[in-house]
Amino acid sequence: MTAPLLERKRLPTEIPKIGHNGGPPLDLLLGYQKALLETTALSTVVVVEKSRRIGYTWAIAADAVLTSAAEKAAKGMDTLYIGYNLDMAREFIDTAGAWARLFDRVCTAVQEELFDDGSDDGIKAFRISFASGFEIVALASRPRSLRGRQGYVIIDEAAFHDDLTELLKSAMALLIWGGRVAVISTHNGAAHPFAQLVEDCRSGKKPYAILRVTFDDALKDGLFKRIQLVKGEAWSQAAEDAWAADIYASYGDAADEELRVIPKNKGGVWLPRDLIVARMSPDIPVLRWECEAGFVDLPDYARRAVALDWCHQNLKPLLDALDPARMSVYGHDYARLRDASVGWPAQVMSDLTLRTVFVFELRNVPDEEQKLIVRYVLDRLPRFVRAAIDAGGNGASLAERMRQIFGPDRVEEVKFSTEWYRVNMPPFKAALEGASILLPKDADILVDLGQFEMRDGVAQLKRQQARTTGTDGNKRHGDAGIAAVLAHYASRLPQQDYGYAPVRTGDAARHSDLPDFTDDDMNGRGFAAGGY
Q1: Mean pLDDT, to the nearest integer, of 487-505?
Q2: Is the pTM of this model over 0.70?
Q3: What is d(CA 210, CA 393) in angstroms, rounded to the nearest whole number?
């Protein structure tokens, strides 16, 4: 190959030439492309799941030039690019050559060569050499391509390499002597090792930075505007909408995976039954209280008395027995009529295992009494640091009231979304797989935890119509499963330890919307225990 190869990548004349020292060079990049370079600058390993045709090769080629054109003192190093076929290698070298010209970096002509890797045919490579002494080399998709090399490895369209697992092993070996790795790809099915790598990053199993960019994300950052600029055509919102609709239509059923970054999957149960059972202990109590029909119509003082009596009889002994030296967290999934409202207190043990201390389920319990019971528990949890409470629908009232009482730095109101599930379900599964969470051994909780499925590439609760019937004959919708996830989520939030003792005396107690939770207060009301 000769110098004309560098001429193939043309830029529109409207874009200014770039100087040496930052500023204008990166102005050529769109927001999500800049985010890629910012992330690679801060992280040793970066994993990117992306849409098709959004210009990430263009962006990572700029990163390669900035890396290999830099002197060693400025953390310069060789860049080793690996695409899954020869055409990708040629295209990347074309693009890197264009960036070298734009950055005005001194480099030699592009060379095509074979180097001896011990095989019969050798490995074809394309090379750009810089005055810094470093090179950009585009290599074949073979793990042995990296043998004896050192530098910044870019694995492009990783999900389409023949043996990604072995390729990653070879690439990660370069980290030992200060190398870096970027793994970039569109998805190729939920079962592919690339999808598993993404899952491991989100769960915390792999300490790698992760980025996700959909086709819509790229449009928001100006992809179509840039396309129109390159074509020399005017942009309008109507033109962008029509163009995007055509792109989605052209992909048809493949649009979710190719454009929306949702790997195809076979669905099914997300948490295997055996895994859940292995993390269950028969020593963790599960308490259930269902109010009789008509309870909601009793006077306030009667409902409160019964609720307090239930707390004293059932919850207080368990709360009093908790280890005062351990930090406590709490998760709550709210329900009022059809399903169970589930509270899930837990403590962080010395080995960082999250141990559920007990679980309570409430059915047909009025909203005000639910607030009373949750407050009762939170008041008595030793070293209570964090709670995550379902704030969807009517649960917003409970979550908001606990936030007001205990403060926003200890109570988070959680509104579920696909993105919330995407970020927080993998760490929960990783905790189960790593035996760092302990659950109650209970048939209904086992079924609830089995109600999570992979849907649209994200582990989330099955749809509303997928209800189950509990051992008590009541309907359930993964209630305890959500509470468990929220408790685990609470344990991962930033924490501040408190020495907290609630004060409810004098006027403060009399004007509180909830009663003082003391034995003297309870006994002074004159209600028969358990009576209405």
Answers
A1: 71
A2: no
A3: 32
